[in-house]
Amino acid sequence: MGDKSTPLLAVLQLLRKYNLKDTEEILRKEASLGNVEYENLDLPEVEIASILTAHHTESDPYSYEVAYDSLRKFVENSLDIYKHELSTLLYPVFVHMYLLLILYDHNEHAAVFLEKFAPEQENYYQEDLKKLAIVKHKDQIKGNEIAEIYSTNKFIVQMSRDASSQLKRYLHEQKNSTVIINIINNHIQIDVHDGPGRTLAQVRATAGGLLGEATKNENRIKVYYGLLKEPDIQVLPAPVEDEEEVEETPDKPKKKKAKKDNIFMKKPKSDPNAPPNDRIPFPELKEADKLEKGKALREAAKRVSLGPDTLPSICFYTLLNSGHTAISADICDDSTLLAVGFNNSTIKVWTLTPVRLRGMKSADKLQDIDREAGDVLVRMMEEKDRDTCRTLFGHSGPVYKVCFDPFKTFLLSCSEDSTVRLWSLQCWTCLVVYRGHVWPVWDVRWSPHGHYFVSSGHDRTARLWATDHHQPLRIFAGHLSDVDCVQFHPNSNYVATGSSDRTVRLWDCSTGAQVRLMTGHKSTIFTVAFSMCGRWLASGGASGELMVWDLSVGAVAATLPPSHTAPIHALAFSRDGTVLCSGSLDCNIKLWDFTAITDEATGEEPGSNNGPKEDKYLLRSFPTKNSPIKCLHFTRRNLLLAVGTYEGSS
Amino acid sequence: MSDSEFAYGSSLSLDSMKVIAESVGIANLGDDAAKELADDVSYRLKVIVQDAMKFMHHSKRQKLSITDIDHALNMKNIEAQYGFIQSDSLPFRFASGGGRELHFVEEKEIDLSEILSAPPPKVPLGVSVRAHWLSVDGVQPTVPENPPPLCKEAQKLESVDPISKLSKPSNEDAAGKPMCGKAARLKASESVHVKQLATHELSVEQQLYYKEITETCVGSDEIRRVEALQSLACDPGLHEMLPRMCTFISEGVKVNVVQNNLALLIYLMRMVKALLDNQSLYLEKYLHELIPAVSTCIVSRQLCLRPEMDNHWALRDFAARLMAQICKTFNTSTNNLQTRVTRLFAKALQCPSQTNNESGVGPSMASMKESEKTPLASLYGAVQGLAELGSEVIKVFILPRVRWLGERVEGALSGIGGADRLAAGNLKQQLLKVLAPVVRQLRQPPDLPDEYKRDYGYLGPSLQQMVSKLRSSPSGSGGSGTAVAVVTCTPPLVPASAPPVSSMHVSKPETVATRNVVIASPAPHSPAPATPPPQKFVIVASQQKPPQAQPSSGTGHIVVHSSQPAIVRSQNVQSVVVTSGPNAGAAPQKVVVVGMPPQTPASQPGAVSQAPVSVVAKPVFARGTPQPPHQPPPELDDLSHLA
């Protein structure tokens, strides 16, 4: 049957779809298609359309090369102002030509086509092309991750109005070959924008996503990136502030706090970009949490202000004898505890201060305690000092992320066993197992206000959870590939995700909708971090690239000069938001002047700042002794803590 | 990523499919079937590896491991492949033959009973956390936990190719260095880029450290000195102070030799030793200061105030060991360090008759006078210095002069003057100690005192006693005994200079075993043990038959063995291949060809049978016929083999 079978199958599927049984029978008989082929009738909708529109010309394998070559010539010969935008068209056309060739069983031609034109595609697409090159047979398209993504989604290309009319004229001239027209019609969405054509730098700044760029419309929604008004805990001795809080909080539980009543007590300036405090409901702060917050504020008063001239001190915690077993690490907000997740499914928690880790007393002993006593929190703990390190057992796969809650009472962990676990740091046991993800969970993060957390994994979703629900509250679906990292916005209203599809997305927690889609990364994104002010988002990728995004407009604010040579797995902002710190597997910690970056970005048109001055962003780089960096953390006083594993002297 | 040379569609070969099919019992796999299988299997393998890479990335590694593959299989609902735990990478071995090439994984059979009877493996160490300052206010302190500011490789590169530093961007330089206040501002104004190279400023801390260390090293408090030396030997980031340290040592030696201050000289030598032992330093740039200082401590005529009382011999021994260590570490083909050092010592041992022969009349007179006057202490140092360089050197440079040295010793012992007599005694002891193992190698028993007397002069009888004592001692049997003798030459005090002897012993004999190999056993009275230690052989071929009647088989090649460095020398041999001695374990190997006119009747030792086909240049050691004692030592310029 050869070439014919694919269009025939498509017709057959179409007949089935419209329930034309008799015609189907006749066709089946005439084409002598047995029942064996019957199961293969699951071509994607788009494919059927493209097959039916053009099968007679497209079955000629030689026309593809000619058509691609002519398109390439057209792009090369077009005016400079259109050239760069038009050139973004080449890659999707190339990919779909390859897939069509495979679909029509021209496997050898497909291989030759790939061999001939793949090397001239952009560098950042080569990784995808390698994956695509694996597909060498029609049957392999189905079930292959990347081929399915391409055949079921439209590739988005942004173009100025003039460029697109140029393209239209060109396509009009190509009457004898409908291949390109069909591909553009079926697989490519051209997003036309008014204004002049973009320059090479502008095009490059946003190119690189698995499915091209984001459309303009996707980033229109307003994002409340401002910070929430914090419950006003005065920088006063602890008892005073406690009384004040007690007065303030006995309104309705579970509902937002009555902030409006005592607004006069706060700073008069309120951020116009901040969401209303009740946009996301928070549980009432507990007594102990308030203590913790007060402590944090007092500490913050002693903060060192950082800048290019006053660089932070770095205290490096080396995990010895860990080899490749230690995967993830986190330091709690007040920098007293260090948790490390291992690939043998265990989690270890170390204390970083002379205070030892204590457990809670047993139940019958707890009953004896007078609950009204002022020091009940101290009394319920074991009196004897315990270990400096405790181990938590429960997972059945490598622990990819551990995360302390803001109040130092819980620990979250996620693992290859597709569960998220909540651990108590008082009982040192597992409290809840959150099941929901179906594949390994790559990342989990607490909301800065506690109670909520978000997880992401191989199932291409991120999920929002509350600790008191065993099911996710929201499922953020839309990424085309693994969601490799998540992060809560400082105001807890948004969640940012980074993915293997090389996009960064921002999701609204209250509606569950995607509010920002940002392209421009050229490799898988392994870590994202919000700036302290909430407006900027930094993301680090597999090839060591580091980008800063402006959430207010949803565009690239800066692409930091390539400096790391290995994947970046840790990012941290100093507490005053002036220094960005990145840690990578190439055993380097680099400090970036974030004030300069944002100044540049706000001063200029976003996306066009690839000036030569960028090397001034990098403040300093600190190599470690063969210890890849797993975690970075700024203490409340702006001391940088880093965690790495020593991998031998070789 | 940017590699455009990447092959987009690689696939397993049909042959592999067939081989695998055979291994599971399918004899005749058709080509079509094999192709289908190959395509499908490559597709699936690649998909699995792709997925496994995700796990690798999320485990924050850059090396794919077997567990990643297991997890990827898990994700596809395929049962993981159990039993393939491998902590290290598993290298593919390669074999070819009969036009077929094969890559395979070496799998060794493991004897379970051995495992059961073996002591249980050590429990792996638990993970622990250790904190240190990576940076203090933006400055990286040079503590052992941090990487050295300038790695040894960079130091080495710099000493070899100083220009490279100029082309380096200044940013790189500032990476780990303190750049605060003034320096930062200067840098910002871009005015110091060139100047930076010339300035050699030490920070206040470094100046304090330098002061403290130098004072302590030559001070009176032994405990503190040990600490200071420890610091010199271990601390990274000393390279900035290195020029000053070396000058300190060099100047210190100059002054204290004049003042005959033995103690201070010893302290300074210990500093040299500490610097040599520091793993993060590369001293080559400073050898011009260190070598004169060290050699002064070896051969200087007087090192202490009372030569008859003080033990300056220990200093000479120690310094000689240091010199050997320096030679071993820094010898390259361009600096010819070892050759030059050897020449230096050999000059001190030049005996008058020889100098007469070698050079013209005028200089010879002077040099004769010189060498006649060479104090015994210097001779001792020279002997010691040469001895440390290995037995090959001993054989070439000390042995031929033993007669003359004996005369000097004899003269001094019979003469008056306590110091001289003591020196002569020490020299004699030292000579005997050094020469005995070599002579034992060279000569065949029986050891007749008369022969020794004839060959070696005054020292002959004592040497004979020493040699026969060595032969009778248990360790002195067979070829391995000589290896031990070599080891003892390397000072036990120098842990860094681990002799490469062990590596020689593990070398595989089978590489040569396919050839016609004949082992010349040097000690017939002590037959080779049933299971001799693995040894290396050098096979040397010659092209012509010698005119002399050979006792055994009569070809002119020499079959040589033993782990002792030596020069192969034979009358009949046209070309001899000798490889480096044990003291050149790390150094590039050299091949020396020595051509000798057939003049003296040779007594070919051992059994030599067929003409071997090839010459194997391996790190092995050759030994030829016992040297006729009257043969003049080789020219100094032949020394390239010592390099």
Automatic annotation (TrEMBL), chain A:
Keywords: Nucleus, Repeat, WD repeat. It is found in: Nucleus. Residues 59-188 form the TFIID subunit TAF5 NTD2 domain. It holds the Pfam family WD40. Residues 236-287 are annotated as: Disordered. Gene3D superfamilies: TFIID subunit TAF5, NTD2 domain (1.25.40.500), YVTN repeat-like/Quinoprotein amine dehydrogenase (2.130.10.10). InterPro entries: TFIID_NTD2, TFIID_NTD2_sf, WD40/YVTN_repeat-like_dom_sf, WD40_PAC1, WD40_repeat_dom_sf, WD40_rpt. Residues 260-270 have a biased composition (Basic and acidic residues). Belongs to the WD repeat TAF5 family. PANTHER family: CANNONBALL-RELATED, TRANSCRIPTION INITIATION FACTOR TFIID. This is TFIID subunit TAF5 NTD2 domain-containing protein.
UniProtKB/TrEMBL annotation, chain B:
InterPro entries: Histone-fold, TAF6, TAF6_C, TAF6_C_sf, TAF_TATA-bd_Histone-like_dom. Residues 10-76 form the TATA box binding protein associated factor (TAF) histone-like fold domain. Residues 619-643 are annotated as: Disordered. The keyword Nuclease does not apply. Keywords: Nucleus, Transcription, Transcription regulation. It is found in: Nucleus. This is Transcription initiation factor TFIID subunit 6.
